[in-house]
Write a structure and sequence with these properties.
This protein has seven helices and four strands; from the N terminus they run αααααββαββα. It is mostly helical. The protein has three domains: 93 residues, no CATH class; 32 residues; 67 residues, no CATH class. The strands form two sheets. The chain has a two-stranded antiparallel ribbon with strand order 1-2. The protein has a two-stranded antiparallel ribbon with strand order 3-4. A hairpin with a 2-residue loop joins β1 and β2. α2 packs across α3 and α2 crosses α4. The chain starts with 5 loop residues before the first helix and ends in a 7-residue tail after the last helix.
Length: 210
Amino acid sequence: MKSEPRWRRYLRFWGPNVTADVEEEFSFHLEERYEDLVARGMDARRAREEAVRGFGDIEGVKSTCRNLAEERELAMRRSEVVGVLKQDAVFAVRQMRSNPSLTLAIVLTLALGIGATTAIFSVVNAVLLRPLPFRDAERMVVIWETVGEGQGRASAGHINDWGQSTVLEAVTAWQQRTYNLTGSGEPERIAGARVSPSFFEVQYMPPEAG
């Protein structure tokens, strides 16, 4: 019987090799059967054939054994993971009980970290990830003119030229500003914008009034 290669023994430190184990097990039993038949006086070639024939569909049996072994290894790994997690949890609870001040510091650190992460994600999600609340938002672009090193306002003539372009389906302009809202109560300062007539066409938002 062939001995197990030394390199394979070292690999076992990193985890089981189900296929190799099954092959070795079958090779062991085949060699045992072969040697037994030879010891009884059977010819070597016939002994080898008889040993193989005795297993029947050897490849099918190997496949079944591999599947069973893989299921067993998976169940063992799951059990080990659950056991380790349980031990870690028990140890952590004991440590927290023995040192309340350290526990409080850890809880505050986690709370601050989670809060900061949540705030950053909320901003990134609103600005970069979440799509604009308009139909065909992926087709909308913002165009501006550059003045020196900064961003400048486009002139009315340029906006009109952009509107005549065949590249853009529609063009609109707006200017943000604040307004005084008056009514039955106290006046209120609100944020608004002056827009060109095509603004609602571009945004697919028909005005409610006016």
